[in-house]
Amino acid sequence: MNKPENVIVFFIDGLHWKAPARLNMPVFNSLIKEGTYIEQSHMIMPHHPTVGEYGRIHSSSFPNPVLQEGTLFIKRGNKMLQDIFPSNQTTAFIVNTKAYTSVSNGFTINIHNPGITDEQVVKQSIELLHEYDVRYFRIHLQTPGNEGRFLSYTTPDKSYYRNIWGEGSPYVEAVENADMLLGVLTDDLKRTGKWESTLLIVTSDHGQSEKGWHPMVDKDSVITPMLFAGPSIAKGRRLSYFEHTDLTPTIAGLMGLEQPNKDGGAGMFIKEVMETIDTPAFQHPAYIKTINQQLNDFNALRARVMIAGETDSYYSSLISYLENELLTPEPFYHQDRFLEWYKAGNTAHLIEANNKILEQMRGELSKPGNND
């Protein structure tokens, strides 16, 4: 295997999975032909609690620690992707927000400056690449995600009201600008002779609702494009499925390093991105897609049970029973218990435990007399 010497993960924040096909993104689309493309990579719902234990520890939404650690089981003692590189090698993280400080520990160079533009992020990234031999570089452009969030609460007089694709959409402008900046970076890598030895991955930490931002129940919030290009990567290949938990193990495998975490929630080294691996037999258990659907189902069913409880106190008790594990040996592993998911032991069992509770809730709601 022609092992890459360096890896750059280029994030376009809040990138909608349809953007490469709908928008003017010539650089991204040219790289699709040069590498391996996944149109929809799945990440865990981008819930962002700001209170409780998660909010106390983490400054960003669920997908970010999951991506950096390569596992759904976020717990003390986990390593992150930057931790697997030898201490004498330079790693760097540059982004124009302070939202990701909790996943930045261990990088040699950290620049988290909300006062700089996407253009300045790329300019400073190139300067660092000229000055240092950066083995692993996370470059994150925050503006597209910010514009998506701002767009979500615009007023009806705007042509892009509740529509990220609308005429004059600042989200569209930011994404197309990010594509141009991706071209600035790749041009510099080619000009300085680093392109042939660099593994480049382009993706986002979460998706984007067509109404704007990334609400946790919107199906477009939990999918985003994923693109691999560089040494050993298959050219012109498309894979049907990928999960963000797979990114860290795949980078580790391609770089000849050990993945940081191998617990029951860890993703896999997807070898099918490599030119030496055939893809006809490629199958993925699709754990994250399943869990996201379970979370949406649970939240909807819980709301129905609570409404039923307004006229029948039995359903009020049912909620308490489920929350306190009185009817089942395990709780439903929902978003408010995210930091307890590791107690399931492995992802398959977590899904199994969740299914049992969903079946029970559906059964209770289908009983005669419940007219919710």
From TrEMBL:
GO molecular function: arylsulfatase activity
Ranges of residues in domain Sulfatase N-terminal: 106-256
Annotated Pfam families: Sulfatase
Family matches, as InterPro entries: Alkaline_phosphatase_core_sf, Sulfatase, Sulfatase_N
Taxonomic superkingdom: Bacteria
Signal peptide start and end residues: none
Similarity comment: family membership: Belongs to the sulfatase family.
UniProt protein name: Sulfatase
Organism expressing this protein natively: Parafilimonas terrae
